[in-house]
Amino acid sequence: MAFELIKKVRLCEVGLRDGLQNEKKILTADEKMELLDGVQAAGFPVIEVGSFVGPRAVPQMADTDQLFMRMKKRDGVEYRALVANVKGVERAEACGCKKIKLNVSASVSHNLANLNCTPAQSVARFGECVDRAGAAGIEVSGSISMAFGSPWDEEIPIGNVQEIVEAYLNAGITEISLSDASGMAYPSQVYDICLKMKENYPQVNWWLHFHNTRGLGIANILTAMQLGFAQFDTSFAGTGGCPFVPGAAGNVATEDVLHMCEEMGIETGIDLDCAMEVGHRAESLLGHPASSCVLKAGKAKDILLMKPEGQTIK
Amino acid sequence: MAFELIKKVRLCEVGLRDGLQNEKKILTADEKMELLDGVQAAGFPVIEVGSFVGPRAVPQMADTDQLFMRMKKRDGVEYRALVANVKGVERAEACGCKKIKLNVSASVSHNLANLNCTPAQSVARFGECVDRAGAAGIEVSGSISMAFGSPWDEEIPIGNVQEIVEAYLNAGITEISLSDASGMAYPSQVYDICLKMKENYPQVNWWLHFHNTRGLGIANILTAMQLGFAQFDTSFAGTGGCPFVPGAAGNVATEDVLHMCEEMGIETGIDLDCAMEVGHRAESLLGHPASSCVLKAGKAKDILLMKPEGQTIK
């Protein structure tokens, strides 16, 4: 018996999108470009740059088009953005974004109340977006928020999540993200859901998106890693948050996940020191510390450099 | 294949000792008694009340004797304290403490520099404490700090930890705690060390003590749980800290561990709501928030009561 873990993971830095969109302070495009440059320099293979949604609904993301036009893309790096409708696809096309992510909530009651249709029906309505993106050479992925729990439901039956996965597959979308934006996922549940998804839909290219709202973000990632899941969203400095709980911890912190991977010998291709610089810079631009433990404590290995003489553990 | 976890854990609340001893503000005995009453009411099976060490070295613990004399002990609950030498055993005896914990650092270089002997030799010198405690009807357990890494060593070879375990066993001590006070443990290492310890010393009654310094406290506990380890130290509000890194996150937070156990159906015998009250009170007495995620966010189940209408996840 051994602790079986994957040897390599792919991380997507979502701080520019999910992190910043939950902040009261709106950064300027120049400040975002600085963070984006840092994220690129650190070597992330996937970067979520922003979203093409209404600027009145999410003013923090209003300049996503500008970021795409100003940035110098690196070979082999995927730059994606969140899109809600055909208008968003058109904006993506206009600014040279080549990868979009659609999203639907797994909460049936929430979807019925807001959109008067089930989540699977919502996905079916994405057909126009998929067609338009296909014509423009834009790759499409799909996300399922509230996959592990929602504020509107006692429980999200796994059958509901499977219906959405099948709707995505019917729409020709095979890259799917399970998201826990409300921070309700817990390890044994993550294990059960991920195992079932892996067994039932081996053709899917899975991503997982965890928040650390109740301290379980990394434990959930570790659990999924034991099942061979290898693609995770993380956010610099642990920025982000839970829209229902002001003051709660945010997305799982990039630096904490990278540090764990480095300690365990799991390859990421990302430079932890560079990523930590980005995290510190983000905190400085936002004007407050976020929720990364490693940014506060430094790397375990760095403690050796401090040579704390005479200190005793009592 | 299933996610195999134990069905029941025993948690020791160490906030009154490891939490408070790392705080600048020294609480009064009355304030500590209030927290102790709350911890008892919450139903913890084991409580680390304080330590019998020099009041000049650790002024935060100077009134541990008083707490033992004032408290109303509950049947079936174990009240333990940290002891460094025979004088500490005498203090324990005088105030009615029936369970003590000795400690040695697994860092050979640190021990040689401070005490001019190896950790195993340090344990052997505890013989007088063990004899004295035995004569007074006081149970003795042993702890190994820096078992997963130390600021003074590139690595702590597992052989060194085993030597200390054997020294404890030779001294007649079979209840042993592996401690990560420097917050350097990581899951694959925890797995390797715990597996070896369990296989080589099946007679030992193990405890594990993790800090959340670099965000891995709960992931480490979860990993050990997969090997059947079932006794963990936690600290209210995530109080505590790393003596080498000011501002770092503290011990793994009681509320976060309890919440995870409750979500996963793992029995603790502890009332989470009562424990959360203690955590909030501790933060209020200390005058600052500590590092518990659940204290900030509330329980996942409580989000249902909020019924956040019209909120959408963007």
UniProtKB/TrEMBL annotation, chains A, B:
Residues 9-276 form the Pyruvate carboxyltransferase domain. GO terms for biological process: ketone body biosynthetic process; L-leucine catabolic process. One of its GO terms (molecular function) is metal ion binding. It comes from the Bacteria. It holds the Pfam family HMGL-like. SUPFAM superfamilies: Aldolase. The keyword Electron transport does not apply. InterPro entries: AIPM/Hcit_synth_CS, Aldolase_TIM, HMGL, PYR_CT. The keyword Amino-acid biosynthesis does not apply. Keywords: Lyase, Metal-binding, Transferase. Belongs to the alpha-IPM synthase/homocitrate synthase family. This is Hydroxymethylglutaryl-CoA lyase.
